[in-house]
Specification:
The protein has about 200 residues and is mainly beta. Helix content is about 10%, strand content about 55%. It contains four helices and eleven strands; from the N terminus they run ααβαβββββββαβββ. The protein has a ten-stranded antiparallel barrel.
Length: about 200
């Protein structure tokens, strides 16, 4: 099993083109107990009003943030585990007047697919993501959804309802320890379904 960080495996030589702050918080060794935490605030957490219809499914699989707000404090924990080579995420949103909301997932290398990872939530629901380094930023682009069951990966047409995802983490040119991020789920007919964006600091605050 490779000791190379998961995102570095996916990017190959392009890893060197990422900004330093991006490499630092993804440089965890698979099959270790390494942990990185970033703190920040989401300038906006938004979903379209009709997206409330998707929330029961989102809550079931743990894939969607059910609340909206501005200037939402957040911390994101990235972890490796000693018993598997995956990368684990725990995004903790602190919406005013509500209990902290955890959005948990994990990433795996895509079998026989260079430049791709799969992000899984509950019940084996996953999103295939193309990974690239663009002007120092780490960019993930949606390549479709799958359901992993009984060793099979079955394509799911969830994009018909959720749209297509785009995620980026970009170094902040004003501070070497900060980066910005944004996530967008955009439907070709209905526009933005979900989006959030914010600024983070690597390390404790």
């Amino acid at each position: 099993m490779s000791a190379t960080p998961l995102i570095q495996q996916a990017l190959g030589p392009a890893w060197a083109h990422l900004g330093d702050v991006i490499r630092r918080h993804y440089a965890m060794t698979p099959l270790s107990a390494e942990h990185v935490c970033v703190h920040g605030a989401m300038h906006e957490v938004h979903h379209a009003p009709w997206a409330a219809l998707l929330m029961p499914f989102g809550r079931l699989v743990g894939a969607l943030v059910p609340h909206t707000g501005t200037d939402v404090p957040i911390e994101v924990h990235y972890r490796c585990r000693a018993d598997d080579p995956h990368l684990y995420w725990d995004r903790i949103f602190h919406f005013a007047g509500r209990a902290p909301f955890h959005f948990r997932s994990h990433m795996e290398a895509a079998p026989s697919q260079g430049g791709e990872v799969i992000e899984f939530v509950r019940f084996g629901i996953g999103m295939r993501l193309a990974v690239s380094a663009e002007d120092g930023a780490l960019v993930f682009r949606d390549k479709g959804y799958i359901w992993r069951i009984a060793g099979l990966r079955i394509p799911l047409p969830l994009g018909l309802f959720l749209g297509t995802a785009y995620v980026e983490e970009r170094p902040d040119p004003t501070d070497p320890d900060h980066f910005t991020m944004k996530m967008l789920l955009r439907h070709r007919w209905f526009g933005d379904v979900f989006r959030y964006s914010g600024r983070f600091r690597l390390g404790s605050q």
